[in-house]
Amino acid sequence: MAFRLDLALCATVSAATLISLQSAAAQQAGATQLEELSVEGQGAGGQAGGGAGTGAPGVATNDGYVAKTTRTGTKTDTPVIETPAAINTVTQQQLQDRQPQNLQEALAYTPGVKVGAFGFDPRYDSFFIRGVDVTYTGVFRDGLRQFNSPNGLFRLEPYGLESISILKGPASAIYGASSSAGIVDLISKRPTDYKFGEVEAQTGSFNRMQGNFDIGGPINDEGTVLWRLTGVARNSGTELDAVKDNRAFIAPAVTFKPNDDTKFTILGEYMDSTTGGSAAYQNRYAPDDVLQSNPLGADKTPLAYKDFNDFRQKQWRAGYELEHRFNEFVTLHQNVRYSGLSTRQEYNGSYNMDTGLIRADVDGFAADTYLTTKVETGPARHTILTGVDASYLAYKERQAFGSFTDPHDISTPDYDDLTSFPRYYNQKQTLVGVYAQDEVALDRWRLTFGGRYDWFDSDLKTRITSLEDRDGDGDFTDYVKTPDRQKQNDGKFTGRAALSYVTPFGLTPFVGYGTSFVPNPGTVIGGSVTKPTVGEQVEAGVKYAHPGTNSLITASVFWLKQKDGVVFAVVDGQNQQTQLDFRNRGFEIDATGTMQNGVTLQASYSYTDTEISEPVSIGGKELTGIPKHAFQLWGGYEAKSGALKGLGLGAGVRYEGSSFGDNTNRSLIKNDPRAFVDAKVSYELDNLSADLKGFRLQVNATNLLDDVKQMCTSNYCYWDKGRQVIASVRYRW
Questions:
Q1: Which residues form the TonB-dependent receptor-like beta-barrel domain (predicted)?
Q2: Is 653 exposed, middle or buried (0-12, 13-18, 19+ CB in 10 A)?
Q3: Which DSSP helix (H) or strand (E) runs through 336?
Q4: What pLDDT sits at residue 413?
Q5: Domains of the chain and any CATH numbers
Q6: Ramachandran angles phi, psi of 663, nearest 5°
Q7: How far is the C-alpha of 8 from the C-alpha of 524, rounded, in Å?
Q8: Residues 211-247: pLDDT tens digits?
């Protein structure tokens, strides 16, 4: 704890130094501030949704399906249309219309994002951006990195989010450790300056029962103290009998606004969830391969045994956001968060009636302090960002293995002695970085450039206990512990430069280049510590917002490469990390719109071409599980008048082309193209009677046609998630 406090103190002291360095420049007269953006309409679903631009003040503004501003792109309130990078946003209205149950479903209509690579798997929120697995390195919460370990990953409750911002391309120059493909920033619900309330009951497939609530508003008449409390309770099965989908979630938030210049928000969360440790199916293997390393496909025989398959995870976070404006030129921001999780994962297979148990504990601390300074140099207006952040990750993981035929099997209740686990991992990582960025506005030109230097330190301890024949009697009964310690110490510079041109008729072309650096937790196959991943990307594109309409179109081409990128492969029945060098290139186009006549639309297409460069043995091959072609289309309509007033309809289709099931690109496990159809119908009951004001009925279906195909990734085959239907009744006041 003392070390974490030292990091926070370091960030605070460094910020004070930055203030003194920038104060002289800040006093220049005539600095021009960006015009405040005004967005009309409730957008985020009325009161409880936060309203357009009010649910997360100072973080993002959205109007229906269309994002107007987001801090994710530059850490400032630069309009999305002017930011020289591809940014996709899942707005509050999209979340309410589609009712996603996890992060994968929330991102399913985002161009260039691949979800479902491991079929039906509720254990982790795993996904790819532009062909790069960013599950461990690309998820941020409210601008701070979300820490993970190899088997300890934070889960997302979508009901606790205001929106999701997806920034494409390297962001290490301002965010530090992150992927070259981009980051996904999860924006938490925050207190609002008006009173509201919402309760919701859900039921549906697999005996699902769920209750949600979201309430808040000002505490005092002056409106200087605001609060919000969001909660979820669920008890549900899944399409696999041995896999549950239960959770309890609570997220309190309080904002203090003593004056117009200072805002202090406390954000918290606790979630207790239980799902299945084995959510896959038995694989068939080539009969002439005794090593069982060449899967030909997946049977419909589940691996899980109901009596020993619970994967229980408790996770929590607590932090704050401070924003203080010294004057019209200088504003201080500080974001701090502590997060932790503890898991107990039971899993099993059916080849040798084997079982496994994993205990993982993760603690993470992050503090980001930065100064925003607005100055002018002749005709150029500058928004200068200078900051320092520090992060700390510590995780412990213990693994044990057994068999149902063993009387001392780990599935027996008495086996809970952590010292008996034959595999033990303990890793600590620290990362400290300093960064600067300048956004220059000169006439219609927008130039953004910046750089960062990170100091990285890692200490990994492992202990592997194995049976050996130490006395030479041919009986492998001697327990031998093999301790190991691997340290890393490194530093890396990353940078980003981008340029856009804002035309008066809504068209904004842009071009950019950036580099990335991210340390990785855990070990690779063979036990060596995972190396940091470095990458770079070049991107060019255009954005178009048709004047007079609430719409946005973004199109871009990109080329990126990564060295020592982390990928996964199933070896000896276990999913293990390995590292590859590869390059990806492609094209993306995305269009969103919310019209006054009640029509909403989101359409996108992406082309992703991947190629492995190292190791040479698979050089030129495509990355496993990544289709070249994919498109998503969602359309909705809500009647504003007439006999159908209050009726809402929506439907979407998600298509992806063929892909390979392993990095050697064997045709035996090539994935066929597939398409999934989703749908939604809703009705506002106050159109039947004024006494029912605030009541809404809604039914959502994912994979409506129940089209389930085999999906192979990283040498193992799964099955797509089948149809799920959820009905809800909601009351708002």
A1: 259-704
A2: middle
A3: strand 330-348
A4: 39
A5: 61-732 (2.40.170.20)
A6: -80, -5
A7: 32
A8: 999 999 999 999 999 999 999 999 999 999 999 999 9
